Amino acid sequence: MGESEGTNSWKKQLWSRRRFLAGAAGVGATGAVLANQRFDRLRPAAIPAIAADLPTQGNGISPMQFCREFDYGIVKQENGRTVREFEITAKSTTLKLNDNTEYVTWNYNGRVPGPTLRAQAGDRVRVLFLNEGGHAHTMHFHGFHTSEMDGIRPVRNGTAFIYEFDAEPYGLHLYHCHIAPVTRHIGKGLHGVFIIDPPDPRPPADEIVLVMEGYDLDEDEHNELYAFNALPNYYMQHPIEIYQNQLVRVYVLNVTEFDPALTFHLHANFFDIYPTGMTIAPTGKSDVITMGMAERHILEFTYSLPGEYMFHPHHDKIAEAGCMGLFKVLPQAA
Fold it and tell me: What are the backbone dihedrals phi and psi of residue 84, each rounded to the nearest 5 degrees, phi first?
């Protein structure tokens, strides 16, 4: 079924506004590739390949693909500065959580979590937000911006809004819907990770995103299932492969509603802690860390011995309800 005339109309208005903002100074795809080389060179030379036949969420997005996928936007140069432009659409999508459970999510770009948006401190961020979710939704970004860009004013279904602000401060942030009841909108999937890299890049590492989520299946304000990156127990059935003696950098975010706090525990190892990703040097070392709702940290570690090692909240009931996974440490690549 094609889009309605009304939908096409407001989309055309949004694209027209985007062209006006970009002006004649924008660069095309080649410029985007060149601008992103500063990020690509920070990736380690060896990252395990992702199997093409791994199960997805039913909408073509695999949690295995998601954990290492970063959206750097369409990159342009405007008035002498870098602009990163992102396109986000609020939708309603059915997610198959396991063989017996389907759940109607509200989400960004048809996936839970939404895409991991990434910029460098000082970049201009422009988000073209279209609401096709059937309800009023918004995008509220953690970080610095003007009150007009705070994402608390409803964007009605069938309309659009452009969020624009400078990428500050550097760190690990998040974005989410801020329509009341906010707990329901976040809990149904309207959340994602927003990374702002520091001006002086962190060392190369195998970078992995882990978002801790809960599912209130019967709307009684208690979660029945939990997950990392949308699907309960996915990483127990499909371990995340890493290499021994290679630095791993995990961006971990807790967006689990209805639980005051969750912990993150790594087996047979300790990690360096960068609170909210806003430090260049670690502030501590542990094998377990506690995070309240919306709290997040960068964790770095290296495994010296091959094998499979668990990660999970150190609250067994939550872990056993789906929030559990494995790192599979492979011998160092030649």
Answer: -110, 120
Contact at 8 Å (CB) between 130 and 110?
A: no
The encoded tokens of residue 107 equal: 């989400």
pTM (predicted TM-score)? 0.89
Specify the CATH number for the domain of residue 26: 2.60.40.420
User: Is the bond preceding residue 204 a cis peptide, omega within 30 degrees?
Assistant: no
pLDDT at residue 15, as a whole number: 55
CA distance 328 to 21: 46
pLDDT-based confidence at 216, cuts 50/70/90?
very high
The 3-state secondary structure of 6-53 reads HHHHHHHHHHHHHHHHHHHHCCCHHHHHHHCHHHHCCCCCCCCCCCCC
Domain coverage including residue 179: 5-330
Distance CA 151, CA 136 (A): 12
CB 138 within 8 Å of CB 163: no
Please give the full DSSP string across 255-318, using - where no structure is assigned: --TTSSEEEEEETT--EEEEETT--SS--EEESEEEEETT-EEEEEE---S-EEEEEE-S-HHH
Domains in the chain, number:
1
SS3 209: strand
